């Protein structure tokens, strides 16, 4: 993908590393939650750790196209959070895995990919041991990837924006319970991963 004229090489490189990380991390989360049979995944090495890769073409393509479509918006600093959301049969979220992103747009030094990857690697080590913090999902659950933008891109001026549509998901009425999982900050990138669950006082549907 060509770099925008007003985009620094550092921001473009950081965005590419982040998108590759998100694809692997989201796949690992879906594997962790057991939504599909274990045979739907295969082990591979990424950032010098063992991660899961989707074997089903449709599953692999959905995750890849979703995060790749975010690349130009991450470069511009428009993406605030990327979430993996699991829903019940009423389309009400049961659990959200939230990646909060921060890319330093003014960072002028050379980006050391090895340093960023070393910091991001810790998420893949932390994810499996965080399973006790998560909820058991019902058999009829579904899931999706959702992005939260700081400013909505204009669909008329960006082909990539057409890939993303407003969600009609029912929201929790009460503020969610938040459980931190892992965070890192290694200039020019900061990433926080945390879990959101419905509040104990959330009205039942």
UniProtKB/TrEMBL annotation:
Alphabetically ordered keywords of this record: DNA damage, Nucleus
Domain of life: Eukaryota
Pfam families attached to this UniProt entry: HORMA (PF02301)
Keyword Nucleus included in the entry's annotation: yes
DNA damage keyword on record: yes
Cell compartments where the protein resides: Nucleus
Coiled coil start-end: none
GO cellular component assignments: nucleus; zeta DNA polymerase complex
GO biological process: DNA damage response
Domain HORMA: residue ranges: 12-195
Protein name per the record: HORMA domain-containing protein
């Amino acid at each position: 993908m060509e770099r925008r004229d007003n985009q620094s090489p550092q921001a473009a490189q950081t965005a590419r590393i982040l998108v590759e990380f998100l694809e692997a991390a989201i796949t690992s989360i879906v594997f962790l939650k057991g939504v599909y049979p274990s045979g739907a995944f295969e082990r591979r090495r990424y950032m010098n750790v063992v991660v899961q890769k989707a074997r089903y073409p449709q599953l692999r393509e959905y995750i890849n196209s979703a995060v790749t479509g975010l690349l130009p918006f991450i470069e511009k600093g428009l993406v605030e959070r990327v979430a993996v959301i699991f829903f019940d049969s009423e389309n009400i979220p049961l659990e959200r895995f939230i990646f909060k992103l921060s890319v330093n747009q003014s960072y002028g030094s050379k980006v050391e990919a090895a340093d960023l990857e070393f910091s991001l690697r810790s998420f893949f080590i932390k994810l499996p041991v965080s399973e006790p913090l998560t909820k058991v999902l019902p058999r009829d659950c579904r899931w999706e990837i959702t992005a939260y933008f700081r400013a909505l891109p204009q669909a008329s001026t960006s082909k990539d924006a057409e890939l993303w549509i407003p969600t009609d998901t029912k929201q929790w009425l009460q503020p969610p319970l938040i459980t931190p999982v892992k965070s890192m900050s290694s200039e020019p990138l900061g990433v926080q991963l945390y879990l959101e669950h419905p509040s104990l006082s959330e009205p039942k549907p």
